[in-house]
Amino acid sequence: MFMRTVDNRWKVFSLLILLVSILLWSFLDMREEEAMLKSLVQPTSGLAERVATIMLSWHSLELLSLNKTQSLWAGYGNICELTARATTPAAARRMRDIYGDIGVSDEDGDETYALILKLISPPPRQAGTEDEGHLRKIMSYEVEQSFYSAIAPLLGRDLPMARCIAATQGSPGSDTPEGLTATIMTDLRLDYPVAGEKRAVLNETQAHAALDWLSEFHKRSWRMLPLPLQELLLPPLEEADRRRRGDTLGRSAWLNGGYTYLATRRKEYGSLAADSASEWSSALCKPLAPNGYSIAELVANFLTPRGRDHETLIHGDVKSENLFTTHSGLGVAFYDFQYVGLGLGVCDLAKLFTCSIPLDMLTDNDGLAELLMDNGERRLLERYHDNLLVGTSKVYEWDTFVRHWETALVDWLRFQASWGFWGNTEWLEARVRSILKDQGWRTWLDEQQSLIDQETGSLARN
């Protein structure tokens, strides 16, 4: 009996040792596999050099040096500085003809160029685990590359922005590694050496220059419209579903510019609606009679692009971090066009005013719970509005523009309240409290909804 008990205990002990060994082996094997995957897909300097060399060769350019300067969000890739040289006189002439005087002659008389490589190589994911955030990022890089390749050249060389030298998109048969998205473009810092800081405010000169750039960008984009809607990207989950059905047309820009609109932020909106501690839960998310839709949903429905006369291409992520300026601050160049798409220009202004404009340029009455449009805010809007219309035949009445502006502020606050506040948040909240209490705005919003209902036959949920 004693021997049988010992034997049973030994069997149990042996099984435990075996189980622990299997678990340990599985863990180590998984870590090794993960490390191998990362080594294959993470953009190392060697991979970046290979990609840059191949892409430059398409235009008879030679890579001289490469330096990684920045990692992209969540390990999705890198940004690198390049120095390249034209290998033939014809290549040098082509660079001058297309991109202007961006070359510098070296001691041998060859022209060299300071360029930027944006290399996208997403971290590995198992099939079926592509969430909305991942899809949004991947598609945004497609949009940005398409913008630099196809849209930016149509806006005129005198509008300051980077120019595309080479792109993997639209290069069938190119021998760049599969699964990578790469764009080589001119380096803005040659003419605009001062970088905007993360979550920093601009000075007055820079703020005016940023407004002037945006008004010019929006004005020139008007000339390109209408765009073929079937070539514009739907919200990420809808676009992914469309592509699974074999429709891959969506590439050139987002149907709805930006990344904060309600159709792509339903999860965050649901969290805000359930947050009884937030004043904005009831103010923005409470269903209203007679149709049961909230203020946030009515606002989002109005802002959804439908081919209206005042819609244009918006940048979609306007902030100080996404621009360079001259030393004087009189000149500004924006970059990072991942979320360019259709929309009202005031949607770009809402983020700029909240996140990058000094508060004292907006109001002298900070700290108030409710705030009407103050003189500073009005002056900035008038500057933008005047510049937007000069030299065009467009009609954009001031009162209509202000209603659009107020609606964009409400929509921007909805995103901040559900995601997290930053910037001139007290000003933004005070302005939106005032807007929500304005019966004139509420009546106008209802009228806009009635027009939409007449066009569509029903209220489209965003």
TrEMBL record:
InterPro entries recorded: EcKL, Kinase-like_dom_sf, Oxido-Kinase-like_Enzymes
Keyword annotations of the record: Membrane, Transmembrane, Transmembrane helix
Pfam families (UniProt xref): EcKL (PF02958)
Transmembrane parts of this sequence: 12-28
Protein name: Aminoglycoside phosphotransferase domain-containing protein
Species in which this protein is naturally found: Xylaria multiplex
